[in-house]
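WARN no homologs supplied; continuing
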Amino acid sequence: MLSRPKPGESEVDLLHFQSQFLAAGAAPAVQLVKKGNRGGGDANSDRPPLQDHRDVVMLDNLPDLPPALVPSPPKRARPSPGHCLPEDEDPEERLRRHDQHITAVLTKIIERDTSSVAVNLPVPSGVAFPAVFLRSRDTQGKSATSGKRSIFAQEIAARRIAEAKGPSVGEVVPNVGPPEGAVTCETPTPRNQGCQLPGSSHSFQGPNLVTGKGLRDQEAEQEAQTIHEENIARLQAMAPEEILQEQQRLLAQLDPSLVAFLRSHSHTQEQTGETASEEQRPGGPSANVTKEEPLMSAFASEPRKRDKLEPEAPALALPVTPQKEWLHMDTVELEKLHWTQDLPPVRRQQTQERAGYSLQELFHLTRSQVSQQRALALHVLAQVISRAQAGEFGDRLAGSVLSLLLDAGFLFLLRFSLDDRVDGVIATAIRALRALLVAPGDEELLDSTFSWYHGALTFPLMPSQEDKEDEDEDEECPAGKAKRKSPEEESRPPPDLARHDVIKGLLATSLLPRLRYVLEVTYPGPAVVLDILAVLIRLARHSLESATRVLECPRLIETIVREFLPTSWSPVGAGPTPSLYKVPCATAMKLLRVLASAGRNIAARLLSSFDLRSRLCRIIAEAPQELALPPEEAEMLSTEALRLWAVAASYGQGGYLYRELYPVLMRALQVVPRELSTHPPQPLSMQRIASLLTLLTQLTLAAGSTPAETISDSAEASLSATPSLVTWTQVSGLQPLVEPCLRQTLKLLSRPEMWRAVGPVPVACLLFLGAYYQAWSQQPSSCPEDWLQDMQRLSEELLLPLLSQPTLGSLWDSLRHCSLLCNPLSCVPALEAPPSLVSLGCSGGCPRLSLAGSASPFPFLTALLSLLNTLAQIHKGLCGQLAAILAAPGLQNYFLQCVAPGAAPHLTPFSAWALRHEYHLQYLALALAQKAAALQPLPATHAALYHGMALALLSRLLPGSEYLTHELLLSCVFRLEFLPERTSGGPEAADFSDQLSLGSSRVPRCGQGTLLAQACQDLPSIRNCYLTHCSPARASLLASQALHRGELQRVPTLLLPMPTEPLLPTDWPFLPLIRLYHRASDTPSGLSPTDTMGTAMRVLQWVLVLESWRPQALWAVPPAARLARLMCVFLVDSELFRESPVQHLVAALLAQLCQPQVLPNLNLDCRLPGLTSFPDLYANFLDHFEAVSFGDHLFGALVLLPLQRRFSVTLRLALFGEHVGALRALSLPLTQLPVSLECYTVPPEDNLALLQLYFRTLVTGALRPRWCPVLYAVAVAHVNSFIFSQDPQSSDEVKAARRSMLQKTWLLADEGLRQHLLHYKLPNSTLPEGFELYSQLPPLRQHYLQRLTSTVLQNGVSET
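OK structure emitted
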């Protein structure tokens, strides 16, 4: 079988193949069949059958010249045998006759007959050229008021009217009348004068549109009249409803422009006819038309009336009022502005002269059909957002521009614009999206603080107001929480999601696949690529869930790594880059670093699935100046590569790279001193050096961790990865290279400008040395003497001289100026900060004197304290020398201001970030003080200050600092070393204070001094109680512990929990008691008496210590909240309050609340934390008192305290109206009342219902002096004041009730009660009754009583 021809074979080969085929005589694969004609089988029946002749190509027979290009004869279609054409018929004529196409109709044009048209000869003139046309002033004035026709149309109409009037004087014009049979508007024929539709007022006086003009003169009138009569007959046969229906159908079918043309033509024709009639009426051949004027149609006469009134008609309602000062608007032609009425409302009616666009116009312009207009609108909106983010609008606008745009749907407008087909529109939409999502300054702040103490850890940039489903999942694993989405969230539409969270709403619109498509398919320019990468970085910083979605978007990360992180590229010079594809991009490397910071699993997937090993090696192996990139880009790329590796090393990953790049890192460390010597230091180089040191710090910590630590706890086995591949031997030689760098930078401490320039380098050096000595001390094979001696050497040669430098004291002094706690104005919330789009608000940069400013001492001092803590922890002998740093006056003043009472800063994204770093410094200082206090006593003033600082810090720590909270509870808070009052006469002073408390006659059952001394002895038990009830959740505690201890294998993520509120509430000293109360409420059977008694006692002891010696620790807890917590002691159990220790502690705490300086601040009407309503709690308290109190005096004192006159009347009504039975158990003597009796009697009661309840309980005997002496005296005082009150402004109801109550009092059978109510004088708690009596009523009261009694004797007692 012959093979098919192959590429490259010539014609000779083809002829050879043909000869072989013919010689073989084989059957062809394809048979040629001649197709027969369409006439049937018998058309060619007499033709012989086809012979088997094959077509053979012979080159010899071909002519030498090509054939002549002559046109071929026309082909004629063969007729079908069943339909024969007549021979005498022309096919063309037959085709024309049967053609039904519209072109056939349009081509049937009858030539216009001009035989009867009048011809006007040109008028002879005596000038060579036509006269110049000049407009008169009268014409100019009329044109402005006509409002219908243009100047050109007016002049033409005037000429026509002048021509129609006849020849001027001296002219000879032949009188050419209309031809016979011509139809004119002025002379309707008799045939159409009476045509009128039945039931209609419209009469048709002849054809209006079809006039026959252009036909032969003998056919014109006949054809026009015939068509008109047919139309009239059809209209007369139709009902009015059918006419309207047909009219609507025709209007719907016809072109709107054609309909408008016909209407304007009809209207113009009517106007022309009327004008001509008016001009010819005074005399002439058409003057007789006035007889037929009533026969004109109604709708033809209405425009004539409007035209007559036209000069007085109002001007057109134009969207823009023309001004003569505008260009070319000196003469306003309103008819030319008629089209502007169809325009949409024009912007800014009051400020039309101002340039620019309104937001409504820009939104409208983004939907334009012109791509340039869409791009322009998006570009302007992006600029508006950028200026708003930068705070340029400030207080110029009433509200937030971003909130206004988001509420208007700008977010989804951008998303729709991303789906545009025009690359320019897509690029502008991406730019606007970046301006909206990425706040300027946020990334710069986070990048510049990456090398701080725990600087790589950040809070999620997501709204704090989460759904209820998310709030109930605090203990859920972060990885599982990221992969699981509630069905409600999945079903919610993107607008609802975006209303609470812009990022979630965007991700729900398939934003990531669209961005992937733009990068993968359209190959945009460098600016668009950088914008997309910046948007992706912002999405990754939102949460672990968003970072996971970015990672799992199909082909997104693959495209970014392949296109923007290649391992080989062509050299790129300085200047603008035409394309970023196949060129390393620092922003792409940063995106991977931010993704890796979201979780250890993401970091592991990035390292294993995208070949980052080769890319990191390629970039780090060469110095930045050797990367064949622009200098700045090369520095940033090298820095981001080191940071990415440092983040991976924070999880104990990427250790294999250290063995490969060890020579490179050593060489980089060796050139650091030379780079530090450059003047001035380059900021990018300093950031790269700091990132290198941060990487080495993490690798050193990885070398210090042992495999046993990573698998010791099975609960965290899922978080542990393979053991670190970095050994101590591989990092032991780094310290001799880093220490000289630290020495070199410390020499610049006295030069502020140079010191700020190299700022991140000494911070990173100090942190590395701390990690180095920590890892060294954990090596089992190393000799302790070696690292102890090296620590001693470092302390003597470097640290102690540093602590004695005056410049270091200036850093301590600047703490207060840069502190957010001491200077809240350094953290002003951003004006453009919608709650659904979180940002740090650093658009304008941080102030110089702020925590993140250039002059901030916090990063260096925090790193220094971290190193000192590490050395003091390992080498106990250095603790005393290193703790001398705590005596710096600047630090003492800073602590004093932090402990002082004041409102805590409002938690914003930036304040949470800044406070976290500030709390690090406070904790490290306290930790160093605790280590020093364990070896030698601290000065009393310092110890009290450190203890107050520890208490304040404990109530301020944010999520992510669970380990610090646990350590404070273990060390500083409950250490006797920080309570110097126990040994300096504190208990004795408390007893002496009790003896001097003359304001209250209360006799304490047990002195406060004894209680405080016992509390100091029970301090270990108190600490265990609070560790049990106040420690954070175990999962959060272990994650925080791994971060702060450097246990890299247990670090789950570098993304901190949401900082919605501090870890512990402000009333954390009462927290165990509150939890005990809730447990008792949820357990009907009751709690264990042992646990209840122990917990209540420890809480009361600790609160008493704080109330007596650290009152500033409870200043954030209102006195009313403290009272409510004390009530919980009685509500927990029916027997707990009977215990003698509990009685003594509660009595002491109640005395603290009733002190003269505290009692005025007791406000029960305000909203209390943890309580829905104090009246509800008090009602529950009354129920419990009535049930189980059995007249307990301490219980009764707590019941009486909220009944003071200045508190809400609701509390008193609850007792006297709903719990009258409790009055018999309130037997607290007047001498044991914790507050003055005047607090209950002054001012007089004005609530009529309560007064009537007072009187009822007194008269019925429910309130007696021997049962309830306090409230008896109170009720008598208020009833007496009421019945003798003579306020003229009282209502009739009050006057009647007063008169009735006085009458009943005068008629009381109980003489003692009658004497008390009538003769009450003043409250006096020293008397048995609690008040003084008049021996004789004052004259006014006596006269008033006599007048009333005489009325009673005459008319009887009135009923109320």
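Residues 909-935 form the longest helix (27 residues).
OK
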